[in-house]
Design a protein that fits this description.
288 residues, 7-stranded mixed sheet, alpha/beta, globular
Length: 288
């Protein structure tokens, strides 16, 4: 497969069927290989389920796999997403925290379905689970049922009319604070990065999050304008943070026009992440 765009060597923000992406880890890594990329990060919401499969396939295609995660947090009513890279998947602390977050996701699903029922839209839990192939359930899976049942004409319309913020069936989800999200990543020996700050203009919180252990900012992103890229690359340099990047790929039907590798980083940044993660592990050993 040949892309009409100049692609980056590695895309550090991709979702799979382990959460709300449309491609399995195997399909995603194969796509990455077909496009000629050399690395990809698996950053599913609240789950590390896709890591092993991606690493197995990555070794066949000689693709560098970064073991990642994306955490939704809340800061003064604003959504702040924290990416974690190269966490210790064997950490009981990590597994326990992620299990709690997934339970909160499930409860939110039930609450949303209850609200939809009051609007005359009866959707069963089983219908939603049909689209949630992984262990992390999210609103996109509910939107997919709304689309398939003919209540809406697109995933976007499902959010706008029914389940997005301000819509009649919207239910806020339990979220960590940014500091708690960063702590979770760092306690699991990972590298904590602020995701797509340009969406909410989040620079005000950066000094406090650095104090909590933030080590990078996502500069390249599918929803960042050129001025955002300049702003956050400058801030990354100012605060001595790693400048990362990725597409936030979910699949064409879920995020139209967001293509793997069109936003990303060089392999040099991947090596820097591995190096930082190693330093984090050594620091924890010294402190224990």
């Amino acid at each position: 497969m040949v892309s009409p765009y100049t692609l980056y060597e590695a895309d550090l923000h991709c979702h799979t069927t382990a959460s709300d992406g449309l491609l399995t880890p195997t399909e995603l890594v194969r796509l990455v290989a077909e496009l000629g990329l050399k690395g990809v990060a698996i950053t599913d919401h609240d789950t590390i389920q896709g890591w092993d499969e991606a690493e197995d396939v990555g070794s066949n295609y000689q693709i560098q796999i970064l073991k990642g995660i994306e955490l939704n947090t809340n800061w003064h009513g604003e959504e702040v997403h924290i990416l974690g890279y190269e966490l210790d998947g064997s950490s009981s602390y990590l597994k326990g925290k992620l299990g709690g977050l997934r339970e909160a996701r499930e409860q939110r699903m039930f609450n949303i379905l209850d609200r939809l029922a009051t609007l005359g839209i009866d959707i069963s839990e089983d219908e939603v689970r049909q689209f949630a192939q992984g262990e992390s359930i999210g609103r996109p899976h509910i939107a997919q049922v709304l689309l398939n049942r003919g209540f809406v004409r697109s995933i976007k319309e499902g959010f706008e009319r029914y389940i997005g913020r301000g819509a009649p069936a919207y239910v806020p989800r339990y979220k960590l604070t940014p500091e708690e999200g960063i702590e979770l990543v760092r306690k699991a020996q990972g590298v904590a990065v602020l995701a797509h700050p340009g969406i909410g203009r989040l620079e005000e919180g950066i000094p406090a999050w650095i104090e909590a252990g933030l080590q990078g900012i996502e500069v390249q992103h599918s929803e960042h304008k050129p001025e955002d890229v300049l702003r956050y690359s400058t801030l990354a340099e100012q605060y001595n943070l790693l400048a990362t990047g990725g597409s936030d790929f979910h699949g064409e039907a879920r995020k139209p026009g967001v293509e793997v590798g069109r936003w990303g980083v060089s392999l040099n940044v991947v090596e820097q992440i591995f190096s930082l993660a190693k330093q984090n592990r050594l620091s924890m050993i010294r402190e224990s």
